[in-house]
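Journal club prep, notes for RB
We'll compare a predicted complex against what the paper describes. Inputs for the nicotinamide-adenine-dinucleotide case:
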Amino acid sequence: MQNMNNSSIKNITISTATKQFLTQPHKLLINGVWVDGVEGKTIETRDPASNEVIARVAIGGSKDIDNAVIAARKAFEGPWSKLTNFERAKLLSRIARLIESNTDLLTEIEVLDNGMPTNIARLTIQNIAEMFDYYGAAAQRIEGTTTTPPRHITDHAEALTYTLREPIGVAGLIVPWNVPASTAVLKLAPALAAGCTVVMKPSEETPLSALLLGQLCLEAGIPAGVVNIVNGYGSEAGSAISEHADVDKVSFTGSTQTGRKIICAATGNLKKVALELGGKSPVVVMPDADLDLATVGIAMATFFLQGQNCMAGTRIFIHDAIHDELVQRVKLFTEQLVIGHGINPATMIGPLISEKHCEKVLKYIEIGVNEGATMLTGGKKLEGDGYFVQPTIFTDCTAQMRIVKEEIFGPVMTVQRFSSLDLDEIARMANDTIYGLSGSVWTQNLSIAHSLVARIRAGHVSINCHGAVGTNIPFGGYAQSGWGREFGQEGLDAYLETKAVTAQL
Ligand code: NAD
């Protein structure tokens, strides 16, 4: 593995705009104003490539969430509800243009706060501008329907029945750290397009890009109280959102474990709950797969974003006929991946998010060895202060191993071999998981590909590629990977209620 881990922030070049952003005060955005938390608490945020502090950020607790919800409710009932769909679309488009003109800044902030490689960060920032445009356009097409009135009315009078699509109300948005800006905007853009107001809590690990987005929302002219951003811990600010009696919907992206807590907390006022949770996605490689394509595809299915990726393909199933050759090819490719600071343009693998997470991933590697899997490559943390773990491949894995069953959320691939050509049997193997988020099938036989895809129980399955997400393509989980869908029209529907109206004429 090529290690370019000269990662101290002192050794990398960042722009003046980024330096200025990092040194400015980072407060809570409540009711259109940047404020300190009620209790005045702050946390440090660190560059995971060097463990150096890059900024200090105000955090809030339940009182701040209360204030944010009051502001959001007032805005929802006030001027925001008077805007037409076209006016909201125009504001979303303005945010998109501001994101485009701040792409470099947003990219660098995302790299420094999260650790992801620059080319990936840049793509995600370009993508969030696209999301605001997409949902702005979708806002213009929010429409109800007319339908046949009920018989017991039409039996004695003329009548008209139609539906209205209305915003759900105040939406609480709880966001993870693995793709911070992207997972935030996947909620923020459709919520605003629908006419909701929001209280958003970014992850305590990556609080910065959401603050910059808040700044751009204000600059675009989003009215006070419509977008509120409260950084803070999950157990404090996060649970205050999911428990809050005046929040109408909570949209959460994070672990399945936290998802369960959100559901319980939401029972008080039975708020609507949307959950985008964890995964342990299968990658099935049939004997006729294009090995050049599969080599890169499989490696990146697992190692993209250092494996800190909900749709990571971490359970690899390779047919006996090609197993040994493909495994060797994937090993060679993996060992060429350049590990280093995300700011370095050559970097393909950045650091893990934190010391705690790094320890968790290393523990799983130890578990894999103890369970009897063969460690083909990787397995070590790199020397230095950053949290770099080598991309690691385990072969000779079995379905019972913990490294196969549990979401590691790190650069750890597990490979199992199979000999059957029976699609039902292969699908049973792929579906042997509590999750159902993503998956992929690699074959040159399109009949086999589509037949197998139909048998895989997951919300997002690709053929001869992996994780082919797009703004217009619905994404979400079966089973314990979640409730509901983001992206596409379904992502907007998630923030709308349907009201049926019948008028006796
Ligand atoms: P996490 O569950 O620890 O935290 C996610 C967010 O929830 C954070 O903002 C955190 O502060 C908050 N939180 C924590 N405890 C809370 C509580 N009790 N009440 C309310 N909020 C609380 O997850 P993470 O470590 O930030 O992210 C990694 C996980 O996210 C992985 O499991 C990954 O698969 C999943 N993920 C899923 C998707 C998807 O689209 N399905 C996308 C990205 C990440």
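Talking point for the session: The domain at 282-470 is CATH 3.40.309.10 (Aldehyde Dehydrogenase; Chain A, domain 2).
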